[in-house]
Amino acid sequence: MFNTVEELIKSLTETFGPSGEEETVRTMIANLVRDRADRVFEDALGNLYAVKESNRPRIMISAHMDEIGVMVTNIDENGFLRIAPLGGVNPIMLLGQRIRFKNGLTGTVYHEKFKELKELDWSKLYADIGQRDAAAAENNVKIGDSACLAQPFNNLPGGRCLAKAMDDRVGCAVLIETLRRLPERLPQEVCFVFSIQEELGLRGAKTAAYSYEPDFGIAVDVTLVGDTPKAPTMAVSLGQGPAIKVKDSSILCHPRVRQLMVETAENNNISHQLEVLERGGTDAGAIHLSREGVPSGAISIPCRYVHSPSEMIDLKDVLNAVELMVKLLTKEWPFSEESNVF
Amino acid sequence: MLSELADIRGVSGDETKIRRFISEKLADRGIENSVDTMGNLIARKNRGKFETLPLLSAHMDEVGLMITGIRQGGLLNFMPVGGIDSRVLVAKRVKIGREGLTGVIGAKPIHLQKKEEQQKPYKEESLYIDAGFNSRGEAEKYICIGDYAAFDVNCTKMDKGFYRGKAFDDRAGCLVLLKLLLENNSLCFNAVFTVQEEVGTRGAMIAAYALRPQKALVVEATASADTPETEKEMSSTVLGKGPAISLMDRTILVDREMRDELAGCAVRAGIPFQFRRFTGAGTEGGAIAYSREGVKTAVIAVPCRYIHSPHSVIKESDLQATVSLTRAWLEDNQ
Question: Which of A135-139, B156-160, B173-177 has the lowest mean pLDDT?
C-alpha cells in the first residue's frame, strides 16, 4: 500500500506497460484494489474490473493502463533494432531517449543521418541495445517485443510532478484512490475498469463496455493544456482543477452527465474547468457508442507535454479529481430503468 | 416545411430543438415516437404484423461551431463541429448558445491586411466570433465554453423551383421521412432521426443496434458538382435529375441487390434518379450496415450545391422525387 497519492503515481508511472503489454500494471493494480471491491476480475483481452455492487444504475469508470511505446520490427546483422510506434508517438520525442523492455533491458533511440528535421520519420530511427551482432541482440529481444520510455518520476517544488506515462497512470491513480475513499455501500453500482490498448484506438474500453453493459460511463484521462509559451489556444491550465470534458474527437459528452459533474463540483466547492479538446479521444468515446448507447462523460487531469518522456501534472488537480469522483459516486444518480433517455 | 426544418439550429450534440419540432409534428398525428440515450428520435408508422420493419434514417444534426475559449477583450474562439471549410466562414452571421445571441465571424479587414495576407485565405485560428462583448467578464455572463454557434440563415425559395438555406444536409432527408410518416398511407416502417452524424455517424450506430432492422435506407443530402468549373461528365450528382443512389462511400460498399432494387423501383414508377458518381465522404450507411450481424443498407440522397456552407441550394423536384422513390421502396418491402 502507499501512504500518499504521490507515491502511488510514482509507482504506477515507473511501471512497464505499453499498449498490449499491460500485464505488470494490471497485476499491480489488482493487488491494490482487491480488498476494496466486491468483485475483481479480468476479461479475455486483459481489461481489469473492480466492482462495488449495488442497485442500478450501473456506472462504468474507465482509466487506461497502457502507455505509448515502441515495438521492435526488425533486428539487423549488427544488432540494431528498427522500431514502430505504439500509439501516437512523434519520432522527435525519441531522439537520444532511453527505452526499456519488459525484461529490464534498456537501450537508446538514435537516428540515421538527415539534413532537415522534417525528413525525420520512423524509417530514419533505430534503437541500439549495445549488442555486437544479430545473435547477441536476439538473445535479449525478439521481433514484436515492446519497449516503453525509461524516465523516472520526479516531484518538483510546489506540487507538480514529471514522469513518463502520466497518460493515463494518473487516471488509474484517481480510480484507485477514489475506490479507497468510497464508503462500504454506494447508492448505485460502480465498476472501475482499468482498460487496455486505449492508445491504439479505445479498444479495451469498447469490449469492456459491451460486457459490463453500464447505464452511464465516465472516463478519467489526461488532457492537453494551453498554458505553455505560445501553445495552441486552449482554455485549460495546469493547477486549475480537473477538467470536465465537453468534447473531443471521440465524444460529445452527454449533457446530463456533464451537468451532474459541474453541479457536484460547484456544490462542493471543488475547483474545476471545462474542456474542449480539438484533437484526441478517450475511453468515453468507445463507451457511449456501446450497444444501445450509454450516456457518458469524462474527467481529465490537465497535463503538459502529453506523449513525451516527461509529462507534467499538478497534484492539486489529481486530489481535486478524486474529491469530485468521491462526491459524484456517493450521491444518488437520477435513473429510471424504463427510460434512460436523453 | 423545408424552411422550418432548415432554419432550426441543431449542430451535432445540440439537436434538442429540431428533435422537439419533429416529435411535436408526429404527436399531432398520433404517431408513436420515442427518444434514446443519445437523443435519436425513433418513430413507428403503422406497427403492422411484421417482426422486423424496414428502417429509414436521416440525421437531424448540421455542421456548426463550438466555443472553445473567451479572449481578454470578449471575442470568442471557436472550433468547427463537423467538416467545415474555414474559407466559407468569414463575415457570416451566427447564433450562439441557448439564448441564440447574434454574432459575426470576424477577421482583419482588407484595409489592414499586408499584401501577402491579401493573397491567402484566412487561417482558421485567425478567425473569431464577435458578439459585441467589451470584456471577458461580460462575455462570461452569457457564454460558456462548450456553447454552440450555428449559421444564422433563413431558408428562402428561389426562382425556378430552387431553395437556398443552411442545413439541407440533412434536413432534406428529415423532410422526406417526416412526409412519409405524416401522410395517409398504410406503409409499415421505423424511421430514425439521428444525432451526431457530422462528427462520425454516432447516433446511427446505437439506433441500428437497438432497432435490429433487416433492411435500411439512409436518406441524405449529397454534394453536387454541377458547378461551372466541373466538366459535365465529371459531376458527382446534378440538380434536377432526381435522387442520387450511392454505389459506395467512405463508410459503405452498397449491397448490389439493394442498389438494383432501388433503381428497379424508380424505373417501374417512372421516378427520375441518378447514381452518385463519387465514392468519397461518409454516411450513416456504414454504421447501420455493419451493426450486429449486418444489415442490408442503401443510401439515397438529394443533390445539394454548396453543401456544409451557410447557403446550400437544392431543387424542389429532387426533393419530391426522393419522397416518391423512398415510398416506392417501402411499398416493395412490405
Answer: B156-160
CA distance B140 to chain A (A): 13
Nearest CB partner across the interface for A289, out of B13, B68, B206: B206
- Residue spans of the domains in chain B: they are 2-62+166-332, 64-151
Domains in chain A, please, with CATH?
Answer: 5-67+164-330 (3.40.630.10), 69-149 (2.40.30.40)
- B145 contact A CB<8A: yes
Return the sign of the alpha-carbon dihedral for residues A191, A192, A194, A198: positive
Any idea which residue has 537516428 for its cell?
A111
CA-closest candidate to residue B92, choices B81, B100, B104 = B104
Contact between chains at A342 and B35 (C-beta distance less than 8 A): yes
How far is the alpha carbon of A303 from chain B, nearest alpha carbon, in Å?
A: 18
Using CB atoms within 10 Å of the CB of residue A239, give its burial: 0 to 12 exposed, 13 to 18 middle, 19+ buried: middle
Topology, domain B2-62+166-332: Aminopeptidase (3.40.630)
If one looks up domain B64-151 in CATH, what number appears? 2.40.30.40
The answer to whether A72 touches A81, Cβ cutoff 8 Å, is yes
SS3 category, A218: strand
Contact A289 B202 (CB under 8 A): yes
Q: Which three cell numbers stand for residue A319?
A: 486530489
pLDDT of residue B49: 63
Interface probe for A, chosen from B16, B38, B197 (most Cβ of A below 10 Å), is B38
- Asked if pLDDT for residue B230 goes beyond 90, the answer is no
Q: pLDDT for B83-118, tens place per residue?
A: 999 889 999 999 999 889 999 999 888 888 888 888
Distance from CA of B299 to the nearest CA of A (A): 22
b/e string for B209-219 if b means 16 or more Cβ within 10 A? bbbebebbbbb
Q: pLDDT tens digits, residue range A192-212?
A: 999 999 999 999 999 999 999
